[in-house]
Amino acid sequence: MNNADQKVKVARGRMRLVSLVEQLFFLIEKQKQPMHVGGLFLFDIPASAKPDFVSDLVRQMRKGNTPPTFPFNQVLHNLTFWKTTNNFDIHYHFHHTALPKPYSSKALLSYVSDVHANMLDKDYPLWECHIIEGIEGLATDDKPDAKYFALYFKIHHSLVDGVAAMRLVERSLSSSPTEVMTLPPWALLRRDESNLEKIVPPKRTFGGIVKEQIGSIKPVFGELKNDIKERDEVGYVSTLQAPASLLNQRISNTRTFLANTYALSRFQKIAERLQVTTNDVALAICSGALRSYLLQLQQLPKESLIAFVPVSLRKDDSVSGNQTSLVLCNLATDITDLKERMNTIHASMTIGKDKFGRMAQAQVINYSAISYAWEGVNLLTNAYPKKQAFNILISNVPGPKETLYWNGAALTALYPASVIFNGQALNITLTSYLDKMHFGIIGCSRTLPNLEQLPDLIEAELTKLEALPELTELNH
């Protein structure tokens, strides 16, 4: 047994306790609200590639029924711990689909919408991989003859958060257009044994956990007391502040997945000129788009919508588990003026990020558990179906900064697809990649009519921000 195989064996032998956050994902999961996240990845096939490039790739992935490595070999056991399994059925996990003609982006998004709505089987490792052909219609004006294929991958949210998922993407692809990769994404550790020690979460002792929890008591209660002082500050949000809205209805098992791409430089120019962050800009255009969408339906609440914005707490290089908390953000949808709305969003995010910046990871988790406790109980029991701590989840996940390849095929776009659940019928997740910002929108089409308008409304809101005097003066 060589060194790489030995390391893989050690990783397989570990059993990891299911954390409270991970258990929550399973407890709230139902047939109509599966708790997995996914991503749609578009690849540009090299002009020099053989006509059967994708078919060869599929045959390669199926060859030998290559078993998965961590975390794709983890199975839930009694809702208490993860254990490694060798029970790998490639026919369950891997699917190859060719979309019918005429080729269209609408057909691709419809396929992802349907697959994303299906719950993962807990008797297997909790993931699926789909290779999709027949998307030549997505060719752009600057590449009219380009040929593409897509990869859709979904994995249970209990196994990864957004940052962990993005790290898996980066480590399963290559930064070299000439590297030949003979292993499928679920066996990435065998490609580079140095990945193993980075990818497996560090082992924690019971004594260390107890010490960490005891040490968090005083700082957590200090921040809870500080909340009282911040109540009058611009942008402050309490867990009882979110209004009832169309977005907060019970959902069906139908899904609509939408995707769009914007130049990252547009966000950066606005952020620099208005002295805010690019994430503030993203929240502002989502806010404006939601405001326009609800106004069209005559469903805009008088009070501002509140967003739950994930914040990463990850300090290590691991690519599994959930190490995030969430900041409540006032989206200022009750404010007409664009500049004032942006300032309110910036102030709201600053309060939340500063608070978490003063605390260690365990302290943030315990603070969040106390602050959002009633919302957690509400998710589990549906005791207050007409009341929620927030109206929508909006997540911004930093993506790769260099071009990634799969056997010479360049990754050109990646669109995240997240979760929705009863009381939260819409989710907007975005990620940066190279010089682009990619939006993935998932919603319940039965609850929310005309969802297909949202990408255009987001574009319109971005254009409005660019037309502010502060930016038009800069352009002149």
Task: Please give a quick description of this structure.
Helix 10 (278-296) packs across helix 11. The protein has 15 helices and 15 strands.
Structure description:
With 476 residues, the chain is of the alpha+beta class. Helices cover 37% and strands 20% of the residues. The chain has 15 helices and 15 strands. The protein has helices spanning 3-13, 20-28, 53-62, 90-93, 105-116, 162-172, 194-199, 206-230, 264-274, 278-296, 338-357, 361-371, 373-381, 454-466, 469-475; strands spanning 16-17, 36-44, 74-77, 81-84, 94-98, 127-133, 148-156, 256-263, 306-312, 324-330, 392-397, 405-406, 409-417, 426-433, 436-443. A six-stranded mixed sheet has the order 5-6-7-2-13-12, with helices on both faces. Helix 8 crosses helix 12, helix 10 (278-296) crosses helix 11 (338-357) and helix 10 crosses helix 14. The longest helix has 25 residues, at 206-230. It is globular and about 65 Å long. It starts with a helix and ends with a helix. Mean pLDDT is 81; it is low at 1-13 and 205-210.
